[in-house]
C-alpha cells in the first residue's frame, strides 16, 4: 500500500481568508499541483476559480494527478440551481472530482426532501459527465444520530434514485475543515465519526477529510 494514493494536496482558502492577492493564491495553487505531481499524490483539491489553470498545468505535464474541486463550499446552503451552475462550470473547466457540501443546515431543520433533491440532481449531472462525486456532510455540525441519518440519506438516494451500479463513484465525505466549532474543538474527521459513516454508507465509499495531519492518523483512517 502506498499511502500517497489515498491523499489529496489541498488548498481551499480564498485570497481574502489568506490575506494575499488572487495572483499569489494562484501561485500557491500551482505550487501545490507541482507538489502533487512530484510526489505522486493522488489528487490536488482546489477552489473552482483555479480549476482551468491547473487543468492546463496538469495536461502540459502529462500528469495523471486527479483534479478535484469543491462546490458550494464551505456552508452548502445555496439552492440547487446555484450548486448545479457551479458544478457545470467546474466540469467545463476540467475538474475530475466534485466535492459538494450538502445542505446540512436544511437537513437539521428537517427539510429532508430538499436535501434528497439536491443529492439526486447534482450527482446525476456529475456522473453523466463521468465525474466522481463526494458529498461533504460536515460531521462537526451534526450529532451522531444526524451523521447516521444523513449518511443513510445519501446512500438511499444514490441506490434508489440513481442506481446502485454507480455507488463506487459517489462518496460520503466527513468535513470541510472550515466549520467553526465552539471552544476550538476539532472540526474534522475522527475515528468515531468515520466509523459511523462506514457503518451506514452501504456500498458507497467514505472519505475522511479535515484534520488528518500525520501518518498515524492516516493509517488508522485507512484501516
Quick description:
With 223 residues, the chain is of the alpha/beta class. The chain has helices at 15-18, 22-39, 51-60, 80-93, 104-108, 112-128, 144-163, 191-200, 215-222, and strands spanning 8-11, 43-46, 66-71, 97-101, 132-136, 170-173, 206-207. It is built from nine helices and seven strands.
Counting helices, strands and paired strands, the structural category is alpha/beta
Order of helices and strands: EHHEHEHEHHEHEHEH
Averaged pLDDT: 97
Approximate strand percentage: 5-15%
Main sheet characteristics: 7 strands, parallel
Strand order of the largest sheet: 1-2-3-4-5-6-7
Describe the structure.
The protein contains 9 helices and 7 strands; from the N terminus they run βααβαβαβααβαβαβα. The radius of gyration is 17 Å and the shape is globular. The protein has helices at residues 15-18, 22-39, 51-60, 80-93, 104-108, 112-128, 144-163, 191-200, 215-222; strands at residues 8-11, 43-46, 66-71, 97-101, 132-136, 170-173, 206-207. With 223 residues, the protein is α/β, with parallel strands linked by helices. β3, α4 and β4 (97-101) form a beta-alpha-beta unit. The protein has a 7-stranded parallel beta sheet, covered by helices on one side.
Provide keyphrases for this structure.
9 helices; single chain; 223 residues; alpha/beta
Q: Layout of helices and strands, plus pairs?
A:
Layout: E1 8-11, H1 15-18, H2 22-39, E2 43-46, H3 51-60, E3 66-71, H4 80-93, E4 97-101, H5 104-108, H6 112-128, E5 132-136, H7 144-163, E6 170-173, H8 191-200, E7 206-207, H9 215-222
Parallel strand pairs: 1-2, 2-3, 3-4, 4-5, 5-6, 6-7
Helix pairs in contact: 2-3, 4-6, 6-7, 7-8
Amino acid at each position: 500500500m502506498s499511502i500517497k494514493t489515498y491523499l489529496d494536496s489541498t488548498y481551499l482558502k480564498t485570497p481574502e481568508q489568506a490575506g494575499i492577492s488572487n495572483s499569489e493564491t494562484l501561485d500557491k495553487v500551482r505550487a501545490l499541483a507541482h507538489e502533487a505531481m512530484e510526489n505522486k499524490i493522488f489528487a490536488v483539491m482546489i477552489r473552482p476559480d483555479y480549476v482551468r489553470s491547473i487543468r492546463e498545468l496538469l495536461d502540459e505535464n502529462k500528469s495523471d494527478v486527479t483534479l478535484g474541486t469543491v462546490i458550494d463550499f464551505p456552508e452548502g446552503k445555496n439552492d440547487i440551481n446555484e450548486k448545479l451552475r457551479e458544478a457545470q462550470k467546474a466540469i467545463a473547466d476540467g475538474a475530475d472530482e466534485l466535492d459538494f457540501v450538502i445542505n446540512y443546515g436544511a437537513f437539521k431543520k428537517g427539510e429532508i426532501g430538499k436535501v434528497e433533491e439536491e443529492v439526486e440532481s447534482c450527482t446525476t449531472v456529475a456522473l453523466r459527465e463521468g465525474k466522481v462525486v463526494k458529498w461533504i456532510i460536515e460531521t462537526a455540525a451534526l450529532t451522531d444520530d444526524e451523521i447516521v441519518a444523513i449518511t443513510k440519506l445519501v446512500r438511499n438516494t444514490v441506490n434508489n434514485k440513481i442506481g446502485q451500479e454507480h455507488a463506487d463513484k459517489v462518496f460520503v465525505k466527513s468535513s470541510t475543515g472550515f466549520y467553526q466549532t465552539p471552544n476550538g474543538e476539532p472540526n474534522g474527521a475522527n475515528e468515531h465519526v468515520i466509523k459511523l459513516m462506514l457503518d451506514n454508507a452501504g456500498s458507497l465509499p467514505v472519505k475522511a477529510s479535515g484534520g488528518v495531519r500525520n501518518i498515524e492518523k492516516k493509517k488508522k483512517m485507512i484501516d
